[in-house]
Design brief:
Strands 3-2-1-4-5-9-8 form a seven-stranded mixed β-sheet, sandwiched between helices. It has one domain: Rossmann fold. The chain has 265 residues and is an alpha/beta fold. It has eight helices and nine strands.
Amino acid sequence: MICDGCRAKTDSRDGDHMDFETLRERALAFREDLLARKDKIAPSDFGWYPYDTMANIFHLDALLTGPRREVFGTLAGTRVADIGAADGDFGFFLEAELGCQVDLIDNAPTNFNGLRGARRLVEELDSGIEVHEIDLDAQFRLPAEHYGAVFFLGLLYHLKNPFFVLERLAQRADLCFVSTRIAQVAPDGTRIQQQPVAYLLDPAEANNDATNFWIFSETGLRRLFDRTGWEVVDFTTVGCQQDSDPRSQDRDERAFALLRAKTAA
């Protein structure tokens, strides 16, 4: 359930006309409140996900242009999915601030704390969010037939079959917010930025993490979006802007995109 205070804010909100600056400020305030809440809970049987997933609000700020600056207002009250959500911080924000019905989706064996963090927050926040254990590398089914948007941030390069996943999402969602690592050159220096390709990592090649698989070139990523049923609405990159590669920590480049399903265009 949404707390009375949050519900009051949602009911009084100017829905479709919410500008991103307002959303960003609310997200940052929510982040501080949630961090304080996590510190107070201080679970003894697991640790919270250690990275700041709410910081994605800054990347979304850089991504969205023109009328898309108000896209979150159009999602108020709709059903959305937060996929690969860690402890679900962003999903809880969407529920509290926009009144969204949120499906939080992750794979427990690869989630930092086995989804115990997300489930604990559902209890502590008296939330209506539903937590689903789904392995995206299997022939998965989503919990709902339709979503206004799916949030798919920082997950694509951890998947064995990104083509299948993006294609399945395009059949169920109108919009997709996605981010992933990309590369301009291969490890041997071969330039790949203009080629529709992906580099398959060795299990220990990038951060010694065997769940890292495909690192696309920007051209390859855009081709992937097109062939899986998406059109690119907004696109930006952050991090290393020259000679980014698939494995070096100091040459890490990330792409952020807002996609619209071609069936929803």
